[in-house]
Amino acid sequence: MLEFRTHGYNGYSVKYSPFFDSRIAVAASANFGLVGNGRLYILNLTADGIKPEKWFDTQDSLFDLAWSEAHENQLLTASGDGSIKLFDISLSEFPIANWSEHAREVFCVQWNLVGKDSFLSSSWDGCIKIWNPHMPASIATLPTHSCTYSAQFSPHSPNILSAVSSDSHMRIFDLRTPASASNHLTLSIPIHTPPKAQPGAPPAVGIPPSEALTHDWNKYRETVLATAGVDRLIRTFDIRAPGQGPVAILPGHEYAVRRLTWSPHLSDVLLSASYDMTCRVWTDGSAVGVGAQGVKTDPMALGGGRELGRMGRHTEFATGVDWCLFGAEGWCASCGWDERLLVWDARAIMTS
Amino acid sequence: MANQAGKRSAAQDRLSQVSNHLRSSEADIPRGREALFEKHPDDIVVTCALRTAITKGGRGGFKDTAAADLLHGAFKALLERSKIDPALVEDIAVGCVLAPGGGATEYRAAAIAAGFPVTSAVKSLNRQCSSGLQACVDIANAITAGMIEIGVGAGVESMSSQYGPQAVTEFSDLLNSVPESKNCTVPMGVLSEKMAKEKKIARNRQDAFAASSFQKAEAAQKAGLFDEEIAALKVKYTDPKTDEEKEITVSKDDGVRPGMTPESLAKIKAAFSKDGSIHAGNASQISDGAAAVLLMKRSTALRLNQPILGKYVTATVAGVPPLLMGVGPAAAIPPALKRVGITVDDVDIFEINEAFASQCLFCVEQLGIDAKKVNPKGGAIAFGHPLGCTGARQISTLLYELRRTGKRVGVSSMCVGTGMGMAAVWVAE
Lengths: 352, 429
Known about the structure:
- The complex is a heterodimer of chains A (352) and B (429).
- Chain A has one domain: YVTN repeat-like/Quinoprotein amine dehydrogenase (Methylamine Dehydrogenase, Chain H, 7 Propeller).
- Helices cover 1% and strands 47% of the residues of chain A.
- Chain A contains one helix and 28 strands.
- A four-stranded antiparallel β-sheet of chain A has the order 1-28-27-26. In chain A, strands 2-3-4-5 form a four-stranded antiparallel β-sheet, with no helix packed on it.
- In chain A, a hairpin with a 2-residue loop joins β4 and β5.
- Chain B is α+β, with helices and mostly antiparallel strands.
- In chain B, 39% of the residues lie in helices and 19% in strands.
- In chain B, strands 1, 2, 3, 4, 5, 8, 9, 10, 11 and 12 form a ten-stranded mixed β-sheet that branches. In chain B, strands 6-7 form a two-stranded antiparallel sheet.
- In chain B, α3 (67-82) packs parallel to α4 (104-114), α5 packs across α16 (387-405) and α13 runs parallel beside α14.
- The longest helix of chain B is centred in the N-terminal third of the chain and has 21 residues, at 2-22.
- At the A-B interface, loops of A face α1 of B.
- Chain A: Belongs to the WD repeat peroxin-7 family.
- Chain A: This is Peroxin-7.
């Protein structure tokens, strides 16, 4: 396990570069992101451990970052003052572009993985915005009317994106639909919907709505998404059957789940980071031979998924986690409020 | 400075957001009395609450003052005391029972005359005796929902000019053919008499309750405990003896009779039946008055430097059989307390409207409330019950008394004609 200390700054998000296997960026904030500056770290994995290549200071807290998919030296930050900044690593100090349209804290930025010519942001102001890096103003604004912690482009289509918000809903937008009163919204799924009753199992109890904090598209199954949030449960949904409720429910985290990401290598494996200070690896039970084994221990569990292992080295809230796209499957990085970035191998903590 | 205040509030917002994330389940949400004292930026707080004096219907200081003029006086005083920029007030709700058309037109005009710009919207509403409370709760809910940022809940009634049978249209045959519907027309006095008999609330207990209401109000008035909540009003008044019209300043409730005892009340003849127990001395008085309450989020109050009197926690409304309308508070208070996870013992003061001594006494006993906690400054029996005003009036009475005595948790409640009850939980700060 490799470690880097982000002294004086509490981590909020970590991302591997999509171009270099040795480059990692961390978005961090002073004073736990409540008030004060933010700092964007660019770090290199070297034979001598993790070395800082560069950092950029910002006026307000940073809550998320995204690497450009088009340019290996550029990356975006999501800031507490509502701005989105584009930094170029080859330059020093200042961002090369700044967009200030959001009225409140921006919690998520993500580059379009397929189109590569656009990116999105989501904010506490109840909006998702679509941007082109060459244009000074946003291309589209998609309202969700509630604090939107996470928005993601589909990794399979340049025009489809999803979002989860504090109103306990997951929304799917398709930018190819005509602009109309629905603002490209094509699907809205209540995350707290209990699963459909199954023969031999008692009917599910009603679950109150709760804030959804994170979600991600499966990298192999293009209709599958996973969500998680304040109610501590990780759920997967298949958007081909939006009315069916969750396909899998993975209980286990003891506090809210802050970040969730599917493996780029294995179609059934998830990684999560939680306020309970752990990062956990999960299978959703969809892989051959994984599901339907053993006894169902938690009444909330559904779909045969289970926890494969956990990493408990963080000593404060774990807020960010990301898989490395390169090399042996299983390498990942996590950050947290303990001012630490950890790089570790998920295979080492798996119990089977 | 303004910028700094904004920064601080953003930090508070972010902190409360993270702490909300950590309340992972229903079971983790703090409950009970201590939880009520937590301060959150999205709390709905009262930054100003006041009322006019309450005067005797037909004879008192406001007998020649129109309801809209009373309301105008309350609005003007609210603007003066709170020093709020009237343009920031986005909506005003006014509870009123007897005015034709709900008084909607007059109250809109009264708001404009009092200094609110035309951009401040006004509505009137009627949930009988709880209209004033309903108005404040509506405004609180509109703020919570994000529809408005700052609002005024108010209540007004001029029973001198508008009390009478014209307040209800004649029932159709359809309504009269359903017994429970028809019960809605039974006069309050008659049904309370029946209820007192059914629930076995003896006349001497009612009289003792009423006398204590008078005594508490008299003592409170002498000690000046109403002064903070009452805004004095200058009105025209025609002297009934000389027919001379003059301008007087009304700053005191004039229905409070000094020296009332259970014995003196025992001499009054029953009003609704020969062997009855209810009479003018142990029922609420017919009165005139107005009250207004300024509500906003805590974050807004801090930004505008508004003093915070207390916060609104929750409200409930409950239906009961029309003939037992007096039990309304007994039905409405328990679910309100349950929702916030407290018991009757956790509440420091109950303001339960004294429509009749019989029903108030019944509710107090039914809920097992310590009588000392109920209406410590007296109630409607002593100073009157201007129907639409009462619910808003209780808020200033309650919050100032909690403040004065250093207590925290209060409940305001009332029975509602046609068989309902309403209750709200407040915390003084």
